[in-house]
């Protein structure tokens, strides 16, 4: 471990980090207190479908040295392991070297457009590295022969692969400590070719639809690499008349890639909403990104067991007035969260968001971008017609630290030693791949995880004068 920091500055930096953590904890707690009732009512926050997993620790790794701003920092470099909700295991590498990984953080499969890979011209080369190195290539002798690294071990292979990825994901000046791992890193960096982003393991498009009672609402198209998915209809007993059907009105219990499904809503039903779920068991494609609901380093998939993946879609309906369908996704190109409001009603859908008024004409769709600062957390619900609501939660993590100031600017505490080649430490921060405790919460710049209001953002249906038939 390399450090030129004296004890006194370290104590000052430790105090600054503690103050930052206290500030952030207070902000997050306040947000949760305000939104707790809404969150309970709306269930889980919307994700874009696919695998949801909890990060454990480093599984196989070696040592690397990061050179930045005149500072040399030794860190661990290698494979993380994640446990997938409802079954399965993922192996991932880090693509955010200067950011800590939080133990037990929840991660969601995410398009590259919602991560720091957006706009990274080398993102495709990272995927090539993943497909042509460990653990996808588990013949270490063959891999060593290509790299000229005789005697390559699993730890060397993991470290060398991670180092090569960091050079493209973060533009980092980083070297593997072991000569064999360094040879592998150099070989992978020089050999990498551009590959396209892999498709999601499972998504539904669109994730929200709307219309009138008596109609088939949709279609919602299934996109998956699984052979088939199980379709679970709305479970709310008050919506027992709502069915999931195909274009001919036949009830659907399973579907395949490309299948179009619909919500069949009875004609005589109160204004309301319903949700369907699709689920499958499949391997998640190598190269899929995983972003956290909290400020925890972004990961990229290196390997997957047979894992459970799922996606949800919602439908809302009303007899008259505005009928919105609401969804959202991170947009790193715009630096914010894109909220899509589609209005299939017969009146304008008007709402206020972030202090601005918006209107979606009948039969039209509008996208409203909620601007966010880098590292800014959001946690809010949006309410629509008939009691329909969506909960959105996450963190905008679109940049690596190398693009926001470099390693030296982020050192607020002395790094703690990282154990190399053994079981991952059990500290809360698992960023032994990356600058770990050497990359703390950024207090001085006040980026500090600002929770959007904490309050519910309510999209109000425009009041219409009742009509009598």
What is this structure's SSE topology?
Blueprint: H1 7-42, E1 52-68, E2 71-84, E3 89-94, E4 106-110, H2 123-131, H3 140-147, H4 154-169, E5 173-176, H5 179-191, E6 202-205, E7 208-211, E8 216-224, E9 229-232, E10 243-245, E11 254-255, E12 260-264, E13 272-282, E14 289-292, E15 299-304, E16 307-317, E17 324-331, E18 336-343, E19 349-353, E20 356-360, E21 365-371, E22 377-383, E23 389-395, E24 457-458
Parallel strand pairs: 7-16, 22-24
Antiparallel strand pairs: 1-2, 1-4, 1-5, 2-3, 3-15, 4-14, 6-8, 8-12, 9-11, 9-13, 10-12, 13-16, 14-15, 17-18, 18-21, 19-20, 22-23
Helix pairs in contact: 2-4, 3-5, 4-5
- Regions with pLDDT < 50 over 5+ consecutive residues? 1-42, 402-432, 435-469
Query: Could you state the order of secondary-structure elements as H and E?
Result: HEEEEHHHEHEEEEEEEEEEEEEEEEEEE
Q: Please, what is the average pLDDT? A: 78
Spatial shape:
elongated
Straight-line distance between termini: 79 Å
- Rg, Cα atoms, Å: 24 Å
Counting DSSP H or I runs of 4 or more residues, the number of helices is 5
Strand residue content? 25-35%
Quick take:
This protein is of the alpha+beta class. The protein is built from five helices and 24 strands. It has helices at residues 7-42, 123-131, 140-147, 154-169, 179-191; strands at residues 52-68, 71-84, 89-94, 106-110, 173-176, 202-205, 208-211, 216-224, 229-232, 243-245, 254-255, 260-264, 272-282, 289-292, 299-304, 307-317, 324-331, 336-343, 349-353, 356-360, 365-371, 377-383, 389-395, 457-458.
């Amino acid at each position: 471990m390399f450090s030129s920091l004296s004890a006194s500055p370290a104590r000052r930096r430790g105090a600054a980090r503690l103050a930052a953590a206290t500030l952030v904890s207070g902000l997050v707690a306040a947000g949760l207190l305000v939104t707790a009732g809404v969150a309970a009512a709306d269930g889980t926050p919307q994700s874009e479908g696919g695998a949801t997993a909890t990060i454990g620790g480093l599984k196989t790794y070696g040592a690397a040295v990061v050179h930045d701003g005149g500072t040399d920092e030794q860190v661990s470099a290698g494979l993380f392991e994640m446990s997938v909700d409802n079954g399965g295991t993922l192996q991932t590498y880090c693509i955010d070297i200067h950011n800590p990984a939080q133990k037990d953080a929840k991660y969601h499969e995410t398009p590259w457009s919602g991560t720091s890979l957006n706009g990274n011209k080398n993102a495709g080369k990272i995927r090539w590295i993943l497909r042509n190195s460990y653990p996808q290539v588990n013949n270490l002798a063959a891999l060593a022969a290509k790299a000229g690294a005789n005697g390559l071990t699993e730890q060397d292979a993991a470290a060398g692969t991670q180092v090569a990825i960091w050079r493209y994901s973060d533009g980092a000046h980083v070297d593997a400590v072991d000569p064999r791992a360094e040879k592998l890193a150099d070989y992978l960096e020089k050999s990498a070719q551009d590959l396209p982003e892999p498709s999601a393991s499972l998504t539904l498009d669109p994730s929200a639809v709307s219309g009138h009672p008596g109609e088939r609402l949709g279609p919602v198209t299934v996109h998956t690499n699984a052979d088939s998915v199980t379709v679970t209809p709305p479970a709310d007993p008050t919506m027992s008349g709502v069915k999931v059907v195909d274009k001919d009105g036949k009830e659907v219990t399973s579907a395949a890639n490309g299948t179009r499904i619909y919500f069949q809503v009875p004609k005589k039903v109160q204004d309301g909403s319903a949700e369907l779920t699709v689920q499958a068991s499949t391997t998640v494609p190598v190269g899929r990104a995983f972003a956290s609901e909290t400020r925890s380093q972004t990961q990229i998939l290196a390997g997957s067991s047979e894992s459970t993946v799922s996606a949800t879609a919602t439908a809302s309906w009303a007899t008259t007035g505005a009928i919105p369908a609401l969804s959202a996704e991170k947009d790193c190109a715009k630096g914010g969260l894109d909220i899509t409001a589609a209005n299939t009603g017969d009146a304008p859908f008007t709402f206020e968001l972030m202090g601005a008024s918006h209107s979606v004409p009948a039969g039209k769709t509008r996208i409203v971008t909620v601007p966010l600062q880098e590292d800014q957390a959001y946690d809010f619900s949006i309410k629509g017609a008939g009691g329909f609501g969506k909960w959105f939660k996450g963190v905008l993590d679109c940049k690596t630290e190398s693009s926001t100031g470099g390693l030296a600017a982020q050192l607020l505490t002395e790094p703690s030693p990282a154990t190399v080649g053994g079981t991952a430490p059990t500290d809360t921060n698992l960023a032994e791949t990356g600058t770990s405790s050497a990359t703390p919460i950024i207090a001085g710049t006040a980026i500090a995880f600002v929770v959007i209001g904490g309050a519910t953002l309510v999209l109000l249906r425009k009041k219409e004068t009742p009509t009598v038939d």
